[in-house]
């Protein structure tokens, strides 16, 4: 009992209820995301036209398709989770099964939270893009995060599933569909960004030679500044990922703070002793 993981400060009998609550909360978050996207679509049609309306509709349609794919994945994942519990608990209650497999349960809860959070962030980013107060890059990053979160949920769900389970096969199909829909969001966002930038092409025809030279030098300075900033942000991203992996369970040290024992030193290769010479 003392060796059991203590990463969640809740009672074991509450663990099963927490799984069901998190899965239900994730489903609600996705349903809310679909409703908000429909509202944004209606608003975009009333407030924009031409190229901007075309871009907004394409992006929001791809986001809607992604939300629908995630909704189906969560539904199939819930069915698979129930199947795993029913086939593995034996004479034990559902709460006892979750308590006995607490590490797996905690992973399932964490994955479900990540999917719900990712859906909310995607919708907020799409809202800012449609209102022209956000960046297209935010929407692309959120799409990648959605794909990673759903992959985490699939991995947590299939750990204890039977390989021949029909729900597992459906879950893997849903996962591939989510990845495809996330890629569509990225593609529609990039193409929309290019369309908007082409529409707002800068016109230098009225500039004098001196003005053009000045603008060229200022642009070179900005390019150097952005390159330096990009290098710094990449270093920062690497450090953030290291810390994230560590907090996610990649510690090499034990829970009580004791480090892993150092590996035994390798034996040095003994040289062959010289042969005794005859007198």
UniProtKB/TrEMBL annotation:
It comes from the Eukaryota. One of its GO terms (molecular function) is phosphatidylinositol-3,4-bisphosphate binding. Its main location: cytoplasm. GO terms for biological process: actin filament organization; clathrin coat assembly; endocytosis. SUPFAM superfamilies: I/LWEQ domain. Residues 7-248 form the I/LWEQ domain. It is found in: Cytoplasm. InterPro entries: I/LWEQ_dom_sf (IPR035964), ILWEQ_dom (IPR002558), Sla2_fam (IPR030224). The keyword Transit peptide does not apply. Residues 250-279 are annotated as: Disordered. PROSITE patterns: I_LWEQ. GO terms for cellular component: clathrin-coated vesicle; cortical actin cytoskeleton. Pfam families: I_LWEQ. PANTHER family: HUNTINGTIN INTERACTING PROTEIN 1, HUNTINGTIN-INTERACTING PROTEIN 1-RELATED PROTEIN. This is HIP1R protein. It comes from Baryphthengus martii (Rufous motmot). The lineage of its organism: Eukaryota, Metazoa, Chordata, Craniata, Vertebrata.
